[in-house]
Amino acid sequence: MSKRVLIVEDEKNIVDILSFNLVREGYETLEAFDGQTGLQLALEQNPDLILLDLMLPKMNGFDVCKAIRAQNRSAPIIMLTAREEETDKVLGLELGADDYITKPFSMRELLARVKANIRRTEMLTAAAPAPAKAAPAAAGRIAIDSDQMVVFKDGAPLDLTQREYELVKFLASQPGKVFSREALMEHVWNYEGYVGDVRAVDVAIRRLREKVEDDPASPQFILTRRGQGYLFHGE
Fold it and tell me: Is the pLDDT of residue 31 over 50?
């Protein structure tokens, strides 16, 4: 069965180009030209991925993203933005978007991101976790149960998003090893050979620390190596 991509964009020429290329790659598409309709389709049709413009009539992309996540819908959201302001991009990620791509964008890059996000969701769905039970034995305060797909801190399960779980699991798989932001985009976001904007990593790390650390401003588990990247320290 074909995967469905919802395009929420008010510029018809962009919608037509996106739809044409997505259909050619084997996807089905749904289109909305304003935020209100986009939100309705997202909740009613349960698309496999959403391409969401920021500047929309009736309801902007930030509010659409926030409303979708408030309904516990986990479909990947890639924001489309013509803006260069970092605050806009970071806000979108904070509200629950998985990534963003700035116009004008390469269709090859956009299709690669669509494919990577849908593949990641498929893999997670195939390995649906069992209800959290007791924490596995661990030498440190952080323990990861790969079968249940749950991270425990001091024996209590943490309420992490899928991306946060994948991020801490990957870092913890090689404790003490520093991973660059580009490496994390490649291994956790599944963007092969990634060389673009890596601020999505910094936002995800900040949100993860808010849930994992005793004091997010002075982390002891997810550490930064300035100019190099991030590492996991499990003691």
Answer: yes
